[in-house]
Amino acid sequence: MPPIRKLKFDKIGYWSEIKLEIVRKYAAAYSRILSAQDRPRLRHVYIDAFAGAGIHISRTTGEFVSGSPLNALRIDPPFAEHYFIDLDSKKTNQLKKLAGHRVDVHILEGNCNKLMLDEIFPHVRYEDYRRALCLLDPYGLHLNWEVIRTAGEMRSIDMFLNFPVADMNRNVLWWNPQGVRDEDIQRMSAFWGDESWRNAAYGTEDEDLFGHRRPRKEDNEVIAESFCDRLKKVAGFSHVSAPLPMRNSRGATIYYLIFASQKAVATHIVDEIFSNYRDHGSH
Question: Does 281 have pLDDT greater than 80?
């Protein structure tokens, strides 16, 4: 019988702590606004598709940091329900310990690409006067476009999305894309929804000294903005905030935090929050 592995809490950089702070600030404003609405009365829920263990360790201080699920459970006025998903049974077990006997918490173990569509989205339908704040924070290209598109089409969901440019650049968006593995191309297309990412990432061509032309990779920001445009035109979100670069200690962008909603007031709130962090980590 193999030994039982103990849960090791994820160590996170300061940029992840900033993300958690941003989501917590908006979640508090969101819940306060929806709790006060009574014509019609709306039932609002919190969804975290890559919930983790609910607790992290700060690389900066070495101390424990509350994750998105724990922050959400502390929001006052509270969300009516909370849905947390993770693939790792050790992490979902830890979440169950944190949640205790709360009946408003639903913890699911498995692939969020299936669970979101089959188990969770049916509970937040617009016509049922349900609304949701959804955090899609994958570790890389582990999210399918179908989840993102459905969130937009439902009209009931505000969404924070991790746009993982580090994984994209490391495995797909090479300056010379000839050697990219087929499986990484498939992951990129699954996240983007089709192969139109090629035009967004390689919009122009360069010519070398021998007259040979090759694709030129666009800047990260251009690619992220193209995806934001896709959120509006294809997924159907009415309002999308300018992507916020999340940078490491060397000033390199690890990912972009993107927010999308059907309500202008929602993006106004997030834009104000984003403005406090937009230059953080830049040199």
Answer: no
